[in-house]
Amino acid sequence: MRIVIFLFAMIVAIQAHAGESVLTLTPRPGAVLRVLTDRPANPVGSVILLAGADGILDLDAQGHIGTSLRDNEVIRTRASYVKAGYATFAPDVASDLRGTQGFRFGSSYAADLGAVVGEARKLGVPVAVIGTSRGAISIAALLLKQSAALPDAAVISSGVLMADAGEGGSASTVGDVGRIHIPILLLRHVQDSCPVSRPEDADRFKALLVGAPKVDIVTLNGGGPATRGADRCGSSHFHGFYGIDDQVVAATVTWLRANMRR
What are the residues facing 187 on neighbouring strands? Predict the structure, then answer.
């Protein structure tokens, strides 16, 4: 009961730019979790957008993103999901988890994401979670480390999926992903050369999702890199679907409409 009280003790919506607002949660004593939100007039559902890299947006109270993750694929396309009819929720990392190693794998972080799912259900159902790159780890944590509030579907793009994908771990090392019981879409770029998100890893990860009612893989092509020296694991390379945001959003929305029911 104390956890619930602290979790929802402070929920404040503050007007931000371009029609967005900031939802502020206090998941633990002294901890602050800000979520950048937006919504159309009559939402057909909600999507929770989980950035890659370290996941830290450094959101301020006015909704300004203070890190380079403003250009992350799921963050830079958030307005497109609103145009498609979805309320959007882009969570930062809670203040007490920043600077801690492996927070994406922990139960506290999973509970924070569960709280965001709960808030999303108040605005528009059904609810999907969309994560890119290391956001795949966040999705696995949400689905395996807590059960208070689960989404209705999940979309992973250029995901860090397999155990050998790097020293930081991957979605497959969070827990038994065979226990995931919601539809999953895996989006990949055929030219993704990032060593922790190889296109073939989507096939290997799909084979592990034995409990999911449906798992689809969509392969895209075209776009990036933006510059010759662009980071091959960054947002402006094939890994980040640079130059084909419209294709990513269209593929995601089409799949959600077919597989996520009210």
Answer: 157, 218
Split into its structural domains, the chain has a count of 1
Mean pLDDT on 217-221? 97
Helix (H) or strand (E) holding 35: strand 33-38
Indicate the length of the chain as a whole number. Answer: 262
Task: Please check whether residue 24 lies inside any domain of the structure.
Answer: no
In a domain, 218, yes or no: yes
Whether 11 is in a domain gets the answer: no
HSE-CB of 192 using CA atoms within 13 angstroms: 28
Domain range for 61 is 35-259
pLDDT higher than 60, residue 173: yes
Beta-strand pair 12-15/215-220: unpaired
Q: Which residues partner with 12 through β-bridges?
A: 24
Q: What is each CA distance from 227 to 64, 135, 231, in whole angstroms?
A: 26, 24, 9
Listed residue (142, 114, 91, 85) closest to 260, CA to CA: 85
Q: E strand or H helix at 208, and its extent?
A: helix 201-208
- Rounded to an integer, what distance in angstroms lies between the CA atom of residue 186 and that of residue 219? 8
Here the CATH number for the domain that contains residue 135 is: 3.40.50.1820
What is the per-residue pLDDT across 81-133, written as a single tens digit (0 to 9) for each? 999 999 999 999 999 999 888 899 999 999 999 999 999 999 999 999 999 99
* Alpha-carbon gap, residue 80 to 83, rounded angstroms: 5
Q: Domain for residue 9, yes or no?
A: no
CA 138/CA 110 separation, integer angstroms? 7
pLDDT tens digits for range 112-125:
999 999 999 999 99
